[in-house]
Amino acid sequence: MSTLNIVNKSPFEKRSLDQCLSRIGSDDAVLLIEDAVVVAMAGTRYESDLKSAAAAKKLYVLTPDVEARGLADKPVVEGFTQVDYKGFVALVTEHDRVHSWL
Amino acid sequence: MSTLNIVNKSPFEKRSLDQCLSRIGSDDAVLLIEDAVVVAMAGTRYESDLKSAAAAKKLYVLTPDVEARGLADKPVVEGFTQVDYKGFVALVTEHDRVHSWL
Amino acid sequence: MEEEYAGGVEKKFIYINRRAPHGTVYALESLETVLIGAAFDQDVSMLFIDDGVYQLKKDQSTDSIEFKNFSKAFRALEMYDVEKLFVEAESLQERGLSEDDLLVDVELVKRGEVKDLIDQQDVVLSF
Amino acid sequence: MEEEYAGGVEKKFIYINRRAPHGTVYALESLETVLIGAAFDQDVSMLFIDDGVYQLKKDQSTDSIEFKNFSKAFRALEMYDVEKLFVEAESLQERGLSEDDLLVDVELVKRGEVKDLIDQQDVVLSF
Amino acid sequence: MKFSILVNEGPYQHQASDSAYQFAKAALESGHEVQRVFFYHDGVNNGTNLTTPPQDDRHIQKRWSEMAESNKVDLVLCVAACQRRGIVDEGERDRNKKDATNVADGFRISGLGQLIEAAIESDRLVTFGD
Amino acid sequence: MKFSILVNEGPYQHQASDSAYQFAKAALESGHEVQRVFFYHDGVNNGTNLTTPPQDDRHIQKRWSEMAESNKVDLVLCVAACQRRGIVDEGERDRNKKDATNVADGFRISGLGQLIEAAIESDRLVTFGD
Fold first, then answer.
1. Can you tell me the distance from the alpha carbon of F30 to that of F34, in angstroms, rounded to the nearest whole number?
2. C60 touches chain B (CB under 8 A)
3. Which residues fall within 8 angstroms of residue A45, CB to CB, at 6 or more apart?
4. Do C65 and F18 touch (CB under 8 A)?
5. C-alpha angle F47/E39/E118, rounded to 5°?
6. Nearest CA of chain E to the CA of C26: how many Å?
7. What is the dihedral of CA E85, E90, E94, E98, to 10 degrees?
8. Which residues does chain E have within 8 Å of residue D65's beta carbon, measured at their own beta carbons?
9. Helices (H), chain F
10. Which of residues 36-65 of B touch C (CB under 8 A)?
11. Closest-CA residue in chain B for F23?
12. Which CATH number fits domain E2-128: 3.90.1150.10, 3.40.1260.10, 1.10.3720.10, 3.40.50.970?
């Protein structure tokens, strides 16, 4: 039984990503959307935290939101998988439930 | 020249209080309102941070918002001053400008 | 008033409450949804983590901000057969709160047990 | 269209931008207010700190979320005599960004200088 | 699969309604069913027909209304949230003695039970908010 | 002193509009002037007359309208935000070919210039938001 967790706020602004990561397991996935996508890009203060998280859990980032913020020219943090909206839909079908960390 | 800084979100949820404290001076004041008031109470994980901040800057907390959250039975962190809405108004008049950290 | 749901399906619902009361409307609405949802005879749990634990703080007094004090409604949940109220121990502790501060009886869970609780659910409603 | 303000008072305004673009409307609205405000002949500065620095990131492409790409309007600010764009160096650095990533020329300030900048202002508008 | 979607925020202020729409569109294009979109809290503000967004911007309400029509998606506005925020259909207008209605085509006002029902009947519920 | 107030959020969802109201009330009771309250972004949703909050809850729009009347406080809704969110007066109804108006007593719709003007003419501007 696994959960798709959605986080939509930048960890520079809100603690929801941390709060999510501290309570999920290795079979769970996290998808970053909206302003949360900024932290999927290499080079930020949180890169090493995210890299460790990606080693233990499946991390995804929504490409349209990356492009909107002009960050498509930056590499993603190692271990992240990029998805579009159809990929987002597929993730929802592949997990037993969805938990939005609002 | 001094600024009244207003913070309205709990530091357990958002980083705005930290972001505010890192950029103001010893003549500036911070008023906690709405959900931010929770951190003015003694005993939280942030108590020692807030105590240090209170030693360097003037920290205030809005009593009606403390009461609404059922926290009037807890002591405030050392150095905090409680104000009501009229006290809030007075603080605005006593500083040169107001900066809301939204 | 909602009519009783005749679909015959029973799912496990968890309401996850992560915000302090009054600063936003979500705490109030979570309670409303649980009360309305009770008519559907589903398996309902409420989980309070992060600032959500403040929703259960005793002695909330909202007169001076002119809000409805809905916190007393938590005491009515039992009458609606909503009896599974989980509170994360670490969330209380980080905020200097204990079970004695809460206005209803709850079951404490550890942070490491939250995943197990969520794994048992069909539907997560986040407030 | 706003008429020119004939009050004769000149105040110092600072627009403080702390949020990433597109997730909320504030980045767009800050720019709108600055452009409208230009007609009032006030002294205007814009300060980008925290996630606000992402507002100035080059190459934003909003087609696939169907948003207006307003970021190009930052390049028009000069024509409105809005020339004081301050960006906090530490905010860039924590995000792995440099001046080369930004779509307009800005003046870098250090975190310790933000207070001095704000101390010079009459009005703070936070977005 | 059968999806339901919960939208907690109004149009333009937060990306929530946009994200929900793009998700719903992709779900339909992927051959899934979107049974219901439930608009709760400020989300009910998606359902007013009185908006006039700038010509060069997306028209959030119209997009939803068109999706409802082309794909038989059930768009439900929470009645209690509508009462607090001023979204009114004919029934609400008469009941609460208002002068106008403003609910847009394809949206209907109903109770929170519709959210619970959607969660029971759908395979997945996906929530978008602030 | 002369205050102006900026409200960025709608009623009921966030405490912002409540905090702004309580602040304005205390300012008036302390003998100050509240020149203008400017409602921006979702804040314009404070100015619809179509709300029917529960009987036992505060009526946020009415409180503002009453304050406008008793204390000559100028309540201004940002026109561009109104267009995006569906708050309409007679002029906007005619211009944008809408069927209804919903702006409440004591509120008027005007441009962002009114915010700048308020900031210039007031001694202090205080902002309430999310």
1. 11
2. yes
3. A12, D94, D95
4. yes
5. 160
6. 8
7. 40
8. 15, 18, 22
9. 16-29, 60-71, 79-85, 90-96, 113-121
10. 38, 41-45, 47, 63-65
11. B85
12. 3.40.1260.10
Tell me whether A1 touches chain E (CB under 8 Å): no
Whether C23 and B41 lie within 8 Å, measured CB to CB: no
Q: How many CB atoms lie within 10 A of CB E30?
A: 15
Angle value at C-alpha F96, between F92 and F100, nearest 5 degrees? 65
Number of structural domains found in chain B: 1
Query: In whole angstroms, what is the distance from residue C73 CA to residue C104 CA?
Result: 10
Interface confidence: ipTM more than 0.95: yes
Q: Are B10 and B38 in contact (CB under 8 A)?
A: yes
From the CB coordinates, do chains C and D have 3 or more pairs under 8 Å? no
Sheet hosting strand F33-39, strand order edge to edge: F107-110, F74-78, F33-39, F2-7, F124-128
CATH code, domain with B97: 3.40.1260.10
CB contact (8 A) between residue B14 and residue A12:
no
Sheet with A80-83, strands from edge to edge, namely: A80-83, A58-62, A29-32, A3-7, A97-101
Per-residue pLDDT tens for D31-56? 999 999 889 999 999 999 999 999 99
pLDDT by residue (tens digit) across E69-108? Answer: 999 999 999 999 999 999 999 999 999 999 999 999 999 9
DSSP state of E54: -
- pLDDT (tens digit, 0 to 9) for every residue of chain F, 130 residues total? 999 999 999 999 999 999 999 999 999 999 999 999 999 999 999 999 999 999 999 999 999 999 999 999 999 999 999 999 999 999 999 999 999 999 999 999 999 999 999 999 999 999 999 9
- Dist CA C83 CA C115 (whole Å): 20
